[in-house]
Amino acid sequence: MAVASFIGNTIELYDFFIYGMAAALVLDDVFFPNLSPLNSTLASFSTYAVAFLARPIGSVVFGHFGDRVGRKSVLVASLLLMGLSTVMVGLLPGYATLGSWAPALLVLLRFLQGIGIGGEWGGAVLLAVEHAPRGRRGLYAAFPQLGPPVGFSAATGVFWLMSASLDEAAFASWGWRVPFLLSFLLVAVGLVVRLKISETPVFERSVAQRTVSKAPMAELLRRHPRELLLGAGAMAIVYTLFYSSMTYGLSYTTTVLGMPRNTMLALSLVACVFLAAAIWLSATRSDTAGRRKLVLMGCGLAVVWGLLLFPLLDTGQPVVMAVAMGGAVFCVGVTSGPMGAYMPELFPARVRYSGASLSYNLGGVLGGAVSPLVVPRLQSAFGSASVGWYISAMALISLLCVRALPETRERELD
Fold first, then answer.
1. Cα–Cα distance measured from residue 289 to residue 344, given in angstroms and rounded to the nearest whole number
2. Which of 42, 102, 144, 216 is buried deepest, with most CB atoms within 10 A?
């Protein structure tokens, strides 16, 4: 089950991340060619942010059915929605063909992607955690948590291959579309895997005991608002730091600093090794050291690294830049690794899908929707150092939220 949750989550996050890559490299020219460089970048990343605004909606919709009908069927639906929306982005004509309809349809497809991914994470981690034996939930949850670095690596690798093998005109014309179209094959693989999985024993027990909630979202908001909001605040730095270093960082280094695109894509792949290692170490260690302790450690590291990230990137030295990006995503990994077990353990089975998903994705709004709107403006108006202060401030907020949450490692999953 852990492997099945890893495969599905990786495919969906590949779909999600290729959009971020395209937004950093080419979407501004294809869909917003008449804007100034700053405004076209903002417009491109605003479409990136739309998905984060949609993710809580996906959490509400898929969370309701995940808590009422079951984890398995919801995961199949989320994969289909995400995959088909991604393929349609790859087929969508640009501004030169459709005019203003092109960016409007792009926003719609990105919104649908957000709905799909909003229901994915909660189901994937519940599939792993609710099958895990007590004392090994961190280990089992580490597998779906590896979806982001593997999905990001796959997205980066495909973009690097297309960029390296095509000239600038071919890449801008059709090469950037290939990663989106490949999603069709990946979704087919994911569906085969997910249709074979079984429902979790925790949910089956809830059905047998007739304890399934009739209105899980209403119950969640009425009985568990504190855990919901603090969990969202805890997740904010994960998205903020990942976006700032790996998505905006790619745009900043290639446009403002003038670094070669292929160099930065290669450095992104190197950074993903740091992210995967940190997730695995932190997630598995949380079974003995506790979730809360390790998440606090990750937030504390992020407070410091936020101030170092852009000064290191500004050196323009590839080795130093690799350290900057690798260190940033290492902080992300230490923080996010235990979250696969920590978030589900905060909520009872009746509202677990809704609670874990909505908390996780509200954190995405704070870090992944707000940051694309704030970071480019900060850099343009006050320089790259201001972005570092913003990252550190978000890390401090997340740290305070985690301090207000309890340790959950010993909790039973009722």
1. 18
2. 144
Q: Is 358 exposed, middle or buried (0-12, 13-18, 19+ CB in 10 A)?
A: buried
Whether residue 248 is predicted with pLDDT greater than 90 in this model: the reply is: no
Instruction: Give the chain's length.
Output: 414
Q: Where are the alpha helices (DSSP H) in 92-182?
A: 95-98, 101-129, 137-145, 147-165, 168-173, 178-181
Task: Name the 3-class secondary structure at 254.
Answer: helix
Strand ranges inside 192-337, DSSP E: none
The CA distance from 277 to 336, in Å, is 12
Q: How far apart are CA 303 and CA 238, in angstroms?
A: 12
| Burial zone of 97 (CB within 10 Å; 0-12 exposed, 13-18 middle, 19+ buried) | exposed
What are the tokens at 124? 């994937």
Q: How confident is the model at residue 253 (pLDDT cuts 50, 70, 90)?
A: very high
Q: Which tens digits make up the pLDDT trace of 292-310? A: 999 999 999 999 999 999 9
Instruction: Kindly give, in sequence order, each residue whose CB lies less than 8 Å from that of residue 304, ignoring residues fewer than 6 positions away.
Output: 392
DSSP for residue 347: S
C-alpha span between 379 and 257 (Å, rounded): 12
